[in-house]
Amino acid sequence: MDSLVKDFRTAFAGMKGDQLAETLRPDFHTSSHKLLAIWGRGSLRETTSDLNFLFYSDPARLRLSQEETTGWFEIYLTYWKAVGEIIAVEGSRKDGKSSNASWTKVYEAWKDLTLQVIRGYTHYEFENWTIPCLYVAGKYLRLFAIRADEERKSGNEVTSESVMQDDFDPESEEHKMLEDCTRHLNRIFQTCLNDRAPLEESRKWGIYYAINLLFKSYFKLNSATLSKNVLRAIQAGRGDMPTLDKFPKSQQVTFKYYEGVLSFLEENYVEAEQHLTTAWHMCHKDANRNLELILTYLIPCHLLTTHTLPSTHLLAPFPRLQKLFLPLGEAIKKADLHAFDVALRDGEDEFIKRRIYLTLERGRDIALRNLLRKVFITAGFEEGKDGAAPVRRTRISVTEFAAAIKLSSGEDIDTDEVECLLANMIYKNLMKGYIAHERGIVVLSKTGAFPGTKA
To answer: Do residues 356 and 345 touch, judged by C-beta distance below 8 A?
Structure first.
């Protein structure tokens, strides 16, 4: 514990929040020697005695207030206990406790630490520069909760990939520990939100990190709608909060991404496009995984709002997105309804998992518009009146459209169904004109018959 408390003193004396938070980082795979040294011989009595001396009696101790001293003493004692559970579950305890170790015990021990850290701000007068300690507590509380839930479901066979898997998991079973975790993450959020100190001393500087942890957890639980409560809370308190652009760029990107996805799920595609575009432009150029997540929703937004498709160049760094979106894009460009249906079916599982299936399904209307436009262009021109230049033919029979749809989709379709499709296209402003049912023709506008195209 001597080395750990020495690091604490150095970070605290320099008011280095990130450095202070590092003393609480529990990553066994990158810091196993550090954690094993902290655990020592595993004696609670010896550890308590050491911490008592280092915090209360050592001549080299920091001169903190009684409240702060108590707070940090409790945190490091609780941290030591959590380290013991982590070492046990990793199979490195020498006292026989590894045999019945579990990630659930790790989660419970780390939860105790998280509550002690929160208590430091609510009871022990911790200053706001120490907020990164809240970040570490909340981050690993979430990861340990996921490991505990995965352990329970998979019979102890848990991999690191299961911890870092994508945040959306709509088909998963109930996440008991993660649900419990969100309650404590919400306490971190409230601890930051409700601080009434002046901004330069406020815990509000930790609010977006806490919000992003909540967003990730709610989406993992398939409870994205709960995120709206968080958005409403920050909207209500925005008057006495720092503006988003004052926070680290990484926090801004994550927040705008989730804000965009929430708008997307509510089918507010214009607003979603704005948030996601902001996240895209701010995201680091080498953060390919994050860029891929943003594009997963930004591409369908563009498809519906501007009827534009991603280029091959844009998707070049993202093979998975190429596989998902390029076949759809090619089908839309070629007005090939059958190819569109095949591409949608081939990517169905992934589209449903990402919650973009229904949105992409609407892209069939764009493919159909392009097909109807081809019929319109193929219809050619008719002679102008009184020697005027030829004008494009604007009266086209329903049977011509029906033949094109049948050929493109590979399915039989009667004229009533075709008229229904045409009426729907007119209603959606993808085609301008009207249907003359008695005459069996469609009368198209002489100018801009197909909005969003050159025809």
So the answer is: no
Render the burial of 217-234: b for 16+ CB within 10 Å, e for the rest.
bbbbbeebeebeebeebb
Helix (H) or strand (E) holding 89: helix 66-89
Q: What is the pTM of this model?
A: 0.84
Distances (CA, A) of 266 to 224, 242, 263, 295, 365: 11, 27, 5, 18, 20
Match 């815990």 to its residue by tokens.
203
DSSP calls for 338-398? HHHHHHHHHTHHHHHHTT-HHHHHTHHHHHHHHHHHHHHHHT-EEPPGGGPPPEE--EEEH
CA dist 416 and 119 (Å) reads 69
Task: Give the C-alpha distances (Å, rounded to integers) separating 382 from 37, 391, 444.
Answer: 89, 6, 14
- Count other Cβ atoms within 10 Å, centred on residue 383: 10
Alpha helices per DSSP H over 175-318: 176-193, 207-220, 227-236, 249-265, 269-282, 288-305, 312-315
The overall average pLDDT reported for the chain is: 87
Residues of the chain with pLDDT under 50: 157-165, 170-172
